[in-house]
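Proteins fold reproducibly. Take a sample protein:
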Amino acid sequence: MKTNLLIASVLVVLAVATIGVILALPFINREEDPSKTVKPRPEPIVALKKEKSKRPVKKEPVQVAVLKKKPDGITPPPKKTVEPEPKKQIETKVPEKKPDEKKTGPKKDDKQPALTKVLILGENIRLRDPDGDFTLKPLNKGKAILLGKVKRLTIEGINNQAHVDTTELEVEEIVFTGAVNGGSVKLGSVKTLHVAAVNAKAVLDASASAASEVVISGNVNSASRVMLSAPAGKVLLHGEINGGAQVEINAPGGKVRVRSDHATIVNGDSKLTIHAKDVELLGAINGTRTEVIVTISSGGSLKFLAVNGGSRLHYRKALRSDPSLRIDAGTVAPTAQAKEMPATK
């Protein structure tokens, strides 16, 4: 037993000694080889740094991937910004559609020009052609009332007891290419009036025309009656007034010239009445009871060539207060009369 105890104790001592040696070896090695002990130390540190750097690197791509997904999800807002842009385009397209509608309109009108430009209902003729012309064929009977608007009206003639009325027509120019024979005409406002001739007790009433120019190229005869108005315009008569015809001209601020291709301008007991600023009677006044009465506006003048037979030429100032008249007198037969009369106002 004692021997066994000794052996056990020895073994315990040896074991303790060996353990102490083993534990002392690292410290001994460090003191002997310091370089060898330093080398292993950085290795774990580097390994740790690498591991730490690797870990965030792995996380960063995950974050970047998330950021990429976010703009992909934000794509709808640009769609919203795109939506107002087509709305603006729609606003610009709307006026483009309107002219298309207007184009379709005139096409329909072009298909029915007769209905839009000229509408005839019994004796009424309605014109809707402000820039166009209309021609009225010779009217031998009945009545024609012209309404609406047209630029130029041509009347090819009026005969017998036919009647034409343009008082409700807006027109710039009226031209009679044919004579007014025995019928009657009543005109409204017009800028230019051209008349061929007035015969056979016809009546041409243009007292409301207020024209800038009136021209009668032919004769006024056979007890016809003509009334003209050109307040500040000019009136030209190129034919002869005879056969008991009567002509009245109102142009207080304008000029009147009567000149015929024949030597006589007024004859056959006819009557010519003029109110104008300047008057020229460039022909003979003949007849036993022919009468010409002229009223001159302030500052105006009168010129006449001859008064023959039993004719009378009476002229006067428009107002008593007007200055003296300027008269360029021609010849006056002993049986005729050319005389200034007192003003009536």
Summary: The longest strand covers residues 291-307.
